[in-house]
Structures are given as structure tokens and as C-alpha cells.
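Quick start: what a row looks like.
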Amino acid sequence: MGKVVYGMHTSMDGYIEGPDGGFGFTVPAEDVHQAANDQVRRCGAFLFGRRLYEVMEKPWTEQLGNEGAPAVEREFAQLYRRTPRYVFSDTLQSVPDGVTIVRRKDAASVVERLKREVDGNLEIGGAELAASLVDLIDEFHVFAFPVIVGGGKPYLPVEREVRLRMVEQRSFESGVLFRRFVRA
């Protein structure tokens, strides 16, 4: 049975994008990138909102991870390419092989089905998608980068309290702090 995990890179003040929409502050150093690779090895499928899918898909399938790239990036690209990807969108009309479009109205039922059918983690990427599926999320992962951006898109834009219990915390040499939470 799969476990739904929502994880994103954030600023110390909890934003995945700064006020200008930029997220360059979340570019991982090698130690954090290796931790991400380790997580992807446990991943049964990626569940992306459309915007994050568009940020990830072309670079990791066509550009990044090729000859000359650092070994950690080449490894991530290989893992990414072989992991099934689901993009939740009402506007996309076509996607390449290895990617499945899920319409928003079907989101909860598809995730519930994947939880039953997929071994490994179902990694949600995208704050709005995560907010729409918050009741199905089993774990919350935060990679907090040592920067304060003062505003932007929050890690999880929900309008109610979600109680959590921290079950893991570790720091990286690069200054990033990782925290893993489950429901309280």
C-alpha cells in the first residue's frame, strides 16, 4: 500500500516561491540533492500540479542529467525518468509516455486508488495540489533553506489547522534543515 507524501523546498519563513515568483533560493547543494535522490528511490509515483510538472518534466527528461552533469544530477534524472508521473490538470491536452493526465474532479479518487495499488511513496509536488488533497496526505516533508524571502507562495495554502507531529529532523552541511511530520 502506498503512502502519500507532500514535500517541498522552502525558505526558512515557509515559502516555496518568493514574492516575485522565483524559487532559485531552493537550488539544492549536493548533500540535499543526494537526500532527494534517496527519497525518489522509495517513490512509486510522482503526483504533480501542472505548474510544477512543467518546471520538472522537460529539464529532467531532456536537458539535465546528461553527460557532463554532476553525478548526483545524472542519478536523479535516471530515477525521475523511470518513475510514473501523474499531472493533475484541466488544461493539458497531451503528455509524453510515462505521464498520465488526471483531471481535478477525479483527483481524490485517483489518489485513493493509487494508495491501494502502488508500492512506495506517492510524492505530491505542488502547493495547490497538496492543499486540495490535504486529507489524503500521510507525511509532510520540508527542506528549509537558510534564507528568508518575506512572502510569496506558502508551503501549504490551507485555511484550517492541520495538526502534525515531527518524527524526524536533520541538518545538512549546506545549512538546509529537513523535517518530516506525520499527522498528530
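That is the whole record. The radius of gyration is 16 Å. The domain at 3-183 is CATH 3.40.430.10 (Dihydrofolate Reductase, subunit A).
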